[in-house]
Amino acid sequence: AQSVTQLDSHVSVSEGTPVLLRCNYSSSYSPSLFWYVQHPNKGLQLLLKYTSAATLVKGINGFEAEFKKSETSFHLTKPSAHMSDAAEYFCVVSVRSGGGADGLTFGKGTHLIIQP
Amino acid sequence: KAGVTQTPRYLIKTRGQQVTLSCSPISGHRSVSWYQQTPGQGLQFLFEYFSETQRNKGNFPGRFSGRQFSNSRSEMNVSTLELGDSALYLCASGRDTTVTYNEQFFGPGTRLTVL
Known about the structure:
A: mainly beta; 6-stranded mixed beta sheet; 4-stranded antiparallel beta sheet; B: 7-stranded mixed beta sheet
C-alpha cells in the first residue's frame, strides 16, 4: 500500500517570494508522483509528474519538484509566488503492482495563501 | 480536444434516494476513475474502469457502484443515500493503464448534497 503525507495544511507567503510545499510518500513499489492544483470551485489540474525519468521535474506556471528517493520526498517549489497561485495543492502517488492500477492516493492537501 | 465532462454539476437529493452521475472522458481515453472529495476525508479513490471492466476498487460500501460503456463513458450510482454521501464527486480519465504511470485528467466534478 502507498501513502502520502503533506507536511503543512496551510502555507502563507508574500507575493514575489519563493514557495515550498512539502510532501513525503511511502510506497512498496516504484511510485509515480504528481502534484495537482485545485482552485476554488474548480476541478483538479495536473501541475507536474515524476515517472522515473529525471528526478527534477518542471511543470506548468513555473512550478517544479524534485524526487529524492533517499528522503522519500517530492517537494513542490516555485521561485516567485503570484497572486493567482492561491489554491489547494495535492501531492499524489500512484503505484502499479501486478499490472493493475491502484488508483491515485492523495495527500490531505496544502492551502497556499499569497499575501499582497 | 474537449476535457472530461461531468453531468449534472449540482444535485440535491434526500436520504434514502438513489443517484446516478455521468462522466464523459477525453476522446481516446479508455480509463475512467471516480473519486469522492469531502472536507473531512479529503480525496478518496472509489473505483476505476477500463474497457468496460472494473479494474480496481477503493474502500467504499456496496451502495457505491459504477459501470463503463463501450464508448468509455461512465456512470456511478449511489443507492440509499446517506447524509455523509454529500461530497464533490470527481471523474478522471486516462489514456492507457498499461503504461508505468497513471496520469489522469479530472473533470469539474458533481456537487451532491443529501438532505
